[in-house]
Amino acid sequence: EVQLVESGGGFVQPGGSLRLSCAASGFTFSSYTMNWVRQAPGKGLEWVSSITISSTIIQYADSVKGRFTISRDNSKNSLYLQMNSLRAEDTAVYYCAVYGSGNYFKSWGQGTLVTVSS
Amino acid sequence: DIQMTQSPSTLSASVGDRVTITCRASQTISSWLAWYQQKPGKAPKVLMYKASSLESGVPSRFSGSGSGTEFTLTISSLQPDDFATYYCQQYNSYPGTFGQGTKVEIK
User: Looking at residue B30, what DSSP letter applies?
Assistant: First the structure.
């Protein structure tokens, strides 16, 4: 069974930083492109970033480009999101998600809440 | 970016009803469309991919159709467990974009 477990969320002031982690199990992590998707309170879903299996192709939403950095450690079956220069509009639940046979999100973690507020 | 528009935004229905949700893309996406179900406080769960392929383990009362720019998700007989918010997502091109969601409420 695929399991994705996010951690690292919390409360941070505007301009601050957080690092999210996602621990994967139940599948061959090193064979799949991984993603972060977020959902602001009461709002819809927004893809944030993706990273291919060898980290050769990394993509970001325009809203986070230059501030967020995605990375992975295939030896640890882990995905990361370094978030810098955080803004109030970054407040959201952040989900780790794996692509299916095509770039749809086949499996999701339970999410971790990031709150940016003064 | 491709814009995805769902209708209606909210739908009130009763157990046993046939329910249809529409998703329109701002440009053609072939059949590269997925549907998700999300319950309050939970992660989304994929129901359909490639417009009409049922994800493993998803009940057969769910079906999807369409291609190009117009798509539908149909629940043939609404069950109590189906009251949730549904999202479509195109994955024809980066970035994969979602519709705004359709909340299915109890009538």
Answer: T
